[in-house]
Amino acid sequence: MGAPTTPAATGTPPRPIPGVPPAHRALTRPRRRLVAAAAALVALAAVGAGSLLDLRTPAPKPADAPAGEFSAGRAYQDVEVIAARSHVAGSPANEQVRAHLEQQLRGLGLETEVQDAVAPEAGQLSGAAGGATVARVRNVVARLPGTDSTGRVFLVSHYDSVQTGPGGNDDAAGTSTILEVARALTTGPRPRNDIVFVLTDAEEACLCGAAAFAASHPLAADGGVVLNLEARGSTGPVIMFETSRNNAKLVDIFGRAAPHPVGTSFAVEIYRALPNDTDFTAFLDQKFVGLNSAYIDGGAIYHTPLDTPAAMDRGSLQQHGDNALGLAREFGGTDLTDLRSGHDATYFPVPGGLVRYPGWLTLPLALLAVALVAALAWLTRRSGRASTGRLAAGFALTLVPIVAAPVAAQLLWLAITTIRPGYAELLDPYRPIWYRLAVLALATAIVFTWYALTRRRIGPAALAVGGLAWLAVLGVLLAVAVPGGAYLTTLPALAGALGGLVALRTRQTGPWPVVAVTAAAAVGVVILLPTVVLLFPALGMAMGGVAALVAVLLGLVALPVVDLLHPQAGGQRGLLALRARRLAVLPAGAAAVAAVVLAGVGLAVDRFDAAHPAPTHLMYAMDAGTGQARWLSHESDPQPWTDGYVDGVTDVGDDFPGLGDGELRSGPAQSANLPAPKLEVVADATAGGERTLRLRLTPQRTARLATLHVDTSTATVLRADVAGRSVPVEPRAGKWGFGLVFHAPPAEGVEVTLTLRPIAGQVALRAMDASDGLDALPGFRPRPPAVGVVGSHSSEMLAVARTYPI
Ligand SMILES: [Zn+2]
Question: What distances in angstroms separate CA 18 from CA 14, 26, 291, 451, 796, one per listed residue?
């Protein structure tokens, strides 16, 4: 909205232009200002507290809870078995986990089988950058047959863990939840629809287990509804953060059937912009619909050795289970033949439930908000509270906090990470609460300072209208670009405009104007406060600016209430006015001090120690042909411990194409007595200018993955086949122009068939494998207690490579 123009209404009293009497510049002028301010703030605080309490996780139910209910106490017993130690795909530990899962599901009387397959990565989105990625996977699949099935409901989680941690949350949470849900479902009457429990393998490596199930398992042939359960942290509410397209019917069932429905259409938009992936992606590639849920707070331990069963918040586990069981029962009884609707829904949590409305309403509502704010601007001007110029200035100046707060939040985090560089490797600090509060205090300080500085010259009414105008305009932009997030600004703008209109239409000295603007601000609190609180763990402190921005938007909706904290506009003269101006700086000053103090408390409280170690990244790579070895780290600014191993920056692409491209820190290492994977020629035939090489790649030690690359200056790769399945031949940058990565290679090796067009006499092939753990390497010094391991797929990796001219 720009400067509104006023139609020359007949009968309009002459307006005092250019100056508007200061006392008339506010939307409300309560007689007892302090009382009104206190009442409004108490009301908003109560609404805010209600919204936040609603995000709390339920109390975990004990192991002796009734059989038809989900019990976190019972599920946790499985968590302890599944996450007793790291169990990466293909490892003996993972075989033990799989045996436990099979035994539990068979024990419930369910038809249980293991799908053993070689599968490519889902959507080519995850996994190593080394080339075409495949894995040998073994999914555990169990079925509860429906009485009169209209389709299938799939409960999905991955049972493998990363190599660097036991996966106490990720994803023992989802897997144990599914076992307990399966148990609860088998105690009652059979559902109408088939329920299929899918515990996937190799999610961490490449989503390959889910890809194998979705693409080739007979039970997946007709698609169905997928409920995927994940954890990316250790605590916090379970958020339904991703859906299939055209989700309105699914979201409606979620709102109705999940006992604790926390989810927002904005999260779906954010998640699409983040580089994360889960098994759900593999199902979306196929003909499935569904919902993806995870708890995400406590992200510091994600993928690290600290992701143990003990780290799990059992309230989060209970919420996962309550929701999964509720949804399984509801979808189990619903006619599944037509779950797609023509549109996506807008939805968000409010105390007591999930608000949802059709996505096609998004743009009309956004335009309505613009119209109502324009009407408020017009009435504000007509009532003599602001001139056109002041309204325009109010709109323009409101951009200051909208820009300044996110920038300041990012600078604050830059300062904190300069003091504590170890934070760079963490998704979120171990104890982020102090930093989150510091960002909120900073945003508050900026809004209050800006308000105190502009209020006298521009006037409270013009600033209030300016804030709402920005919300309304952002609502239109979001409705066009990110429709699921438009409600965040559209609805507060609508409420603010209505509140303002009511305030202007009722007797100024009575209580109603204050009630109206407070009610409008309360709508903003209900919508925006949970967003701020959920954005922090979702994006981490490194993107705290986004939460700061939303906090400013909340401040803008509440400006008429904030105004009550200031002396009445223009009500004083002389000394009194000076005192009033000083008082106006108080809230801003208090918030600024709070920001500094909270950041300082964060630095003092969240120190690295044995229980909260500073994460470091190290790996080892050796060429078995030359015996040359080196330490490698992806830390861009190495921690002191890592610094003992690496110095300069190297590009390892030429020597270790299996590690993907990109520059790493590198330092010399002692050679270890380790064999490279064996590459044998099984068959070699040339016909019509094409050479077909059948090769067997066999790791000579326990390896998590094996890779094979072709020097494309010696031959062009025309086709490639791995374990009987063809893989895409997409050119890679650099010397090794073709590559493939095989996760969880079987001990007997992997057969690879390459069809080549020779360029040189011999083709150069580079074979590599990678295991995990550096402890046995010569020259490795164990980490001191306060130094930990980064939760990355290459942490602690030990790679051995060799070139084979064939
Ligand atoms: Zn994971």
Answer: 12, 17, 57, 22, 71
